[in-house]
Amino acid sequence: MSTPETETRRERYLLYVVAGATVLALMVLGLIFFNAASSNREAQDKADQLIAALEHAGARTPDQDQIVRVLGTDGGATCTDPNDDLNRAILLTQLTNGAAGPGARPVVADSRVFKFQQLVIQIYCPENLTDFQKYVSDLKTADVASD
After folding, report:
1. What count of Cα atoms within 13 Å lies in the side-chain half-sphere of residue 131?
2. Which residues of the chain have pLDDT under 70?
3. pTM exceeds 0.70
4. Longest dimension (CA), the chain
5. Which residues contact 112 (CB under 8 A, 6 or more apart)?
6. Read out DSSP for the chain?
7. For position 35, what pLDDT does the model report?
8. Is 82 left (phi over 0), alpha (psi -120 to 50) or beta?
C-alpha cells in the first residue's frame, strides 16, 4: 500500500526550484572562492622562487600559473607529510623499470630525479627538508641520464 500525496503539484515544483537554485548558488560561490584562494600573491611569490631555483639548477621551468594551480601556497601534495611511510613508498614505486606485476624491478635513478622535489620542499615546507634529504641520500643514485 502506498502513501497518498499531500502536496500539490505547485508545492512540489516550488520545492524543486528552490533546491535547484540553492545548489546552483553554492556551486557558483564554490568556484569563486576556489579561484580566489588558489591565485593569490603568496602563491605567485613562491612560484617565482621555484622558477628561479629551477633556472639556477638548469632545469626547464613550467609557467607561473601552472605552479600556482598545482602547489598553491602550501606545496600541495608534495608537502603533505613527504616523510610519511606511505608517501615514501609511492615515491619508490615510481622508480621502477615501468613494467607491471612480477616484471616490475627497481632501478638506479639519476641523481637529479629528486632535485625538483627537494626544491619544492625547500620553498614550500622547509621544516621537512632535512628529513627528506637524509632519506634521499640513503637511496642509490648515479649520473645515468644525459643532458
Report:
1. 11
2. 1, 35-39, 146-147
3. no
4. 77
5. 145
6. -PPPP-S-HHHHHHHHHHHHHHHHHHHHHHHHHHHHHHS-HHHHHHHHHHHHHHHHHT-----HHHHHHHHTTTTGGGGS-TTSHHHHHHHHHTSB-S--GGG--B--EETTTTHHHHHHHHHH-GGGHHHHHHHHHTS-EE--S--
7. 62
8. alpha
